[in-house]
Amino acid sequence: MAFAAKGARAARERSPDSEALADPEGREPEADPVESAKRIVMQQLSVSAKSRHQLAQVLARRAVPESAAEAALDRFTELGYIDDAVFARSWVESRQRSRGLAGSALRRELREKGIDAEIIDAVLIECVDPDAERVAAAALVDKKLRSMRGVNAETATRRLVSMLARKGYSPGLAYTVVREQLAASGG
Fold first, then answer.
1. Mind listing the pLDDT tens digit for each residue in 5-18?
2. In Å, how far from its chain's centre is CA 147?
3. From CA 23, how far away is CA 12, in angstroms rounded?
4. Using an 8 Å Cβ cutoff, are 131 and 167 in contact?
5. HSE of 145, CA atoms in CB hemisphere, 13 A
6. For the purposes of burial, counting CB atoms within 10 Å of the CB of 69, is it exposed (0-12), middle (13-18) or buried (19 or more)?
7. Domain count, the chain
8. Which of 11, 127, 133, 182 is 20 to 30 A from 172 in CA distance terms?
């Protein structure tokens, strides 16, 4: 009964203007597009870090007007919530640690995320050490070798080099590391 009283009171308190603005399906009128864009950006950033390009794509899919999207993205950039350099650095460190990816694979992924080439170059110079890449490749090969007992050297080489290539390692480095690891393991 209390629920019905609140609904009736709310209906009496509505002004004629609010009913004229209401959607025929009973939804509230659309809020300011910039505020809607900000709300969407906040929601997206609360789930995971994203590049400015990724956020712009989300806003476009949600049919946010381009001017409102730009205004919201500019404001979040100004406040420091959107920073492609910080995003790229974090992405590189995470993908190196979790997947053992090499610089070329990381470059490709960052391009797909819409990061500028200058930022990509700076981050990869800062975060990707050729010696560390070689050590990571050797660790990947060593780990995979454990599951390849009984496989002949030619097949093992092909499989291991292919695995490293998928992770972005250059063919020269891949063949060198695989040969060294096979020799060290007696294969």
1. 444 444 444 433 33
2. 31
3. 18
4. no
5. 21
6. buried
7. 3
8. 127
Is 167 contained in some domain? Answer: yes
Q: How far is CA 75 from the centre of its chain?
A: 21
Q: Is residue 64 part of a domain?
A: yes
Is residue 169 domain-resident? Answer: yes
Q: What is the pLDDT of residue 112?
A: 96
